[in-house]
Batch of 2 targets.
Target 1
Amino acid sequence: MHPDLEKLIVLQGHDIEAKRLRDEMVALPKQVAALETKAKAILGQRAVVVELIAKEESLRRRQESDVKDQKAKIERTRKHMDLATTTVQVTAFEHEIAFAQAEIGKLEDSEIESMERSEGLEAQKLLADDAVTDSAATLERERVRAAEVVAQDKVLLAAVEEKRKAVRAEIGESALSTYDRIAKGKGTAVAEAVNQKCTACQMMVRPQRWNDLRDRGNDETMMTCESCGRLLYYDPARDAPQRKTVPVESIAASIIRSL
């Protein structure tokens, strides 16, 4: 294997880890913001329920007042009816009383309906109260966790960046330029070839290139996948006899751990 390719494998491991850390540091605040939005929405839903409960209570107060007015009207009409001198007057007063009594019946029915609606709203409010409590607790818990993870990621990222700089300084300018160009376009620049296949794009490697890739005496050439353009490497440990009790480590993992 080309010496620079070994270092590029290590560099890619550091680059992938650095990207993971950066992505996590970006994602966590967004997750917290999403939880804040959700918590505000739940508070808003609870506020709507509370407002509806207040409206029903206000409605019933008006209905109770209207019932009192109608009852007072009936009392006044009965007094007038006691003073009536003709059948026509008595009949008119009776009609007024009957109308007032019908209005009282409607108001009382409406008041019962309002009370039933309030019962349902009160049940919704209890659920909303629990949801508000849960969302607030979740938000606070995730806010603290996110802050801790981001702080930890910053430390880890600084360490990874130091390793990246150290490895990049050991790689030839040409190989590093090739790596950067491929990584910029593909996301990753190095891929292992396994079973005559590129593990990045899953395309087959031509037999001749596969044989060249497996040539253990080839330490001067860096070959690329003809399908995706990534730098290919082959792990010779795959050709070595393997024991079930002693797993063979891949060359990429061995190189990364050695630094």
Target 2
Amino acid sequence: MAFARINDVLLHYRLQGPVGAPVLALSNSLGTDARIWDAVIALLEGRYRILSYDKRGHGLSDAPGGDYTIDDHVDDLAGLFDHLGMDRLALAGISVGGLIGQSFALRYPERLAGLILCDTAPKVGDDAMWNGRMEAVRRDGMASIAGAVMVRWFTEAFRRDRADELAGWQNMFERMPVQGYAGTCAALRDADLRDAIDAIAVPTLVVVGDQDLSTPVDLVRDAAARIPGAHFEVIAGSGHIPSIEQPQALAALMTRFLSEVGHG
């Protein structure tokens, strides 16, 4: 395990793949940690130097109290890149990780060879939804919403046929720090990049699971339409986290896109 203190927050990160290979950084979704990328990493690590990490409030990273912002997460990621001496790379993010990616691309376009946005949008949900979720976990704990979250994350087929995996991912979710989860809910509540992402000048791939209930296909398609020149793809048989349900399909799309933009 590797750790770095960035902006007074201890971040857990992992580096896999050949030293000197093109760098690919991966940002996880709300209520998850870097392990959601494991199956994709296994498929890509021979070709890329892959950085995965637990964003603040998640996994083995610190979970400071209070509300977070997307800028907090972007500052953490930029600081981690600086710490590791990563000047130019490709960045992929799922859900809030994709919002972090959008904001990073707006602030640091010169550092990105490519941007991959999975199951995300420039604006996700509304104040009432996020405030209600924050109140619920602070009052009753993570387990109180875990069942409903699993329905939104995973397809019916996954929940039926891969019950042990489902139970494991639910364990991960229930063990997330309440303050970290709620803090990142606040970041999602307050983020609205709808009027900004038309300025993204980085080559971009946007993907979505065809059965995503958290960021539905039409919402993600609209996000892709706002980014000049973005490629849009739908992954069949996937909910909100294609890196878990359909890692081979996601890895294939990522590899093709990164090859097309000359990164690996």
